[in-house]
Design a protein that fits this description.
By secondary structure, the chain is of the alpha+beta class. It has helices at residues 14-23, 59-70, 86-96, 103-107, 112-121, 135-145, 168-174, 218-223, 243-256, 289-297, 301-311, 343-350, 386-399, and strands spanning 2-6, 27-32, 49-52, 77-79, 129-132, 149-153, 163-165, 184-188, 193-202, 205-215, 230-233, 261-269, 275-281, 323-328, 332-333, 339-341, 354-359, 377-383, 401-404. It has three domains: 2-107, Rossmann fold, CATH 3.40.50; 128-188, ATP-grasp fold, A domain (Dna Ligase, domain 1); 193-404, ATP-grasp fold, B domain (D-amino Acid Aminotransferase, Chain A, domain 1), CATH 3.30.470.20. It has 13 helices and 19 strands. It has an eight-stranded antiparallel β-sheet, sandwiched between helices. Strands 3-2-1-4 form a four-stranded parallel β-sheet. The structure holds adenosine-5'-triphosphate and magnesium ion. Adenosine-5'-triphosphate binds next to strand 6, strand 8, helix 8 and strand 13.
Length: 405
């Protein structure tokens, strides 16, 4: 089983997928823009060979170089788990006439308007929306959609440049901020709670499913620095209240022609109990959500994904034992972290239910919380009872304080 895996060590969790591939017996050919000498030591044992390309985002150039590199070798899979590279992987597969999702199918997971058109065409509940490319189109779309609305880039990630707009005056303030974005979506603002629906699929059929609850909604996590974002996987994901989300999620996979691999969907649960589609990617969620799923089910989804991608089978028991909560912390102040308060108390309270503590240590420079949800580090808890997992998560969110003074 020869596998070409794009970006085998970036972002850092990709190292785990590379490991998974090697562990299920694949011979892994990595392609990335990092120099070979700069590859992290942990990934090296899992790579059979590696091609450094000058610009990993330059699809045509990468396709030519990888084609040259692999000439004469039989390749069985071309895979990518990092959002910006999923179309590139599909284009290489097409060029080589290989199995896997086509570029057109993958576009349905990348282009937010195309995605919504396809999901809507399947009769599923999607926010009203329009593709907009200039100021005139934004104003016309706002007229059609009404307020409040959401303006966001078509190929966005990390809630960057995403704005909630309450009225026409606010729209005029936001329009200049969107100027450098080529294409945006203008969308009906959906009230309600926000959740994920994550899967590992074999030919569009989920063999593993997960729901996680965002506390608060990502747009608020990204706009208010004082918040410690919390995300908790829901052990009891098949409860009646969440059933519309599971049903929506499964139907979306069909509507978009999902093949084999990870998916990460976001959806809203309205006050009336209706599930509304948010967005979906044909790759795993970021921000440690795969670690959370692993803690939820005591499995190794990095390896199980690889088994599915290579051999089409999922071997782990997908039982759900815990609610796993991650709490991202942001230090008050700028520059380097100077101290952490309340950690000792929290760790004593949480005991064995705290499974990870990776707060940046004093002396470390703060991360840019606008750029990365990872912020200034995280703690992770898990507990069989939802209420206790929730309590512990918020004990960390409010009780641990970090400073950069
Ligand atoms: N129509 C909507 N109604 C209400 N909130 C929305 C809507 N669209 C987006 N949001 C909010 O903005 C956030 C970011 O939007 P979206 O997920 O589409 O963009 P993204 O940049 O890909 O985000 P990320 O990479 O963080 O998942 C959503 O998680 C949600 O909180
Ligand atoms: Mg999103």
């Amino acid at each position: 089983m020869r596998v070409v895996f794009l970006a085998p060590s970036f972002p850092p969790e990709m190292i785990q997928y590379t490991r998974g591939l090697a562990e299920v017996g694949a011979t892994v050919y990595g392609v990335g823009d990092a120099p070979r000498e700069a590859l992290p030591r942990e990934v090296r044992p899992y790579l059979h060979d590696y091609l450094q390309v000058p610009r990993i985002m330059d699809e045509d150039d990468v396709i030519e170089r990888v084609t040259q590199w692999m000439r004469g070798k039989q390749v069985d899979r071309v895979l990518a788990n990092w959002e910006p590279l999923v179309i590139l992987a599909a284009r290489i597969r097409e060029r080589w006439g290989m199995p896997g999702m086509s570029a057109d199918t993958v576009r349905g997971f990348r282009d937010k308007e195309l995605m919504k058109e396809r999901v809507r065409a399947a009769g599923l509940r999607v926010p009203r929306s329009r593709r907009v490319c200039n100021e005139r189109e934004i104003r016309a779309a706002a007229e059609f959609i009404g307020y409040p609305l959401i303006l966001k880039p078509i190929a966005g990630a990390g809630s960057a440049d995403t704005y909630r707009v309450g009225d026409a005056a606010e729209l005029e303030r936001v329009i200049p901020l969107m100027r450098y974005i080529a294409e945006a979506s203008c969308e009906e603002y959906v009230e309600g709670e926000e959740f994920t629906f994550d899967t590992v699929c074999v030919e569009g059929r989920p063999v593993y499913e997960n729901i996680a609850s965002y506390l608060p909604k990502p747009i608020e996590m990204r706009s208010l620095e004082w918040i410690s974002p919390v995300i908790i996987t829901v052990r009891d994901m098949y409860q009646a209240r969440l059933a519309p989300g599971v049903e929506l999620g499964r139907n979306v996979l069909g509507a978009l022609g999902m093949g084999t691999g990870f998916t990460h969907m976001e959806w809203f649960l309205t006050p009336k109990g209706e599930a509304v589609f948010g967005e979906i990617g044909c790759r795993p969620g970021g921000g440690h959500i795969v670690d959370q799923m692993n803690y939820t089910s005591d499995i190794d989804l990095f390896r199980e994904w690889a088994r599915v991608a290579c051999w089409g089978v999922f071997e782990a028991a997908p039982s759900r034992k815990y609610n796993a909560g991650i709490i991202f912390k942001r230090a008050q102040g700028q520059g380097r972290i100077t101290r952490i308060e309340g950690l000792g108390n929290f760790l004593r309270d949480a005991g064995k239910w705290c499974v990870e503590e990776q707060l940046l240590r004093p002396g470390t420079r703060r991360r840019d919380w606008k750029q990365t949800l990872l912020s200034d580090g995280h703690v992770m808890v898990r507990h069989p009872d939802w209420a206790e997992a929730h309590r512990l998560s918020f004990a960390a969110a409010t009780g641990i304080k970090m400073y950069a003074e």
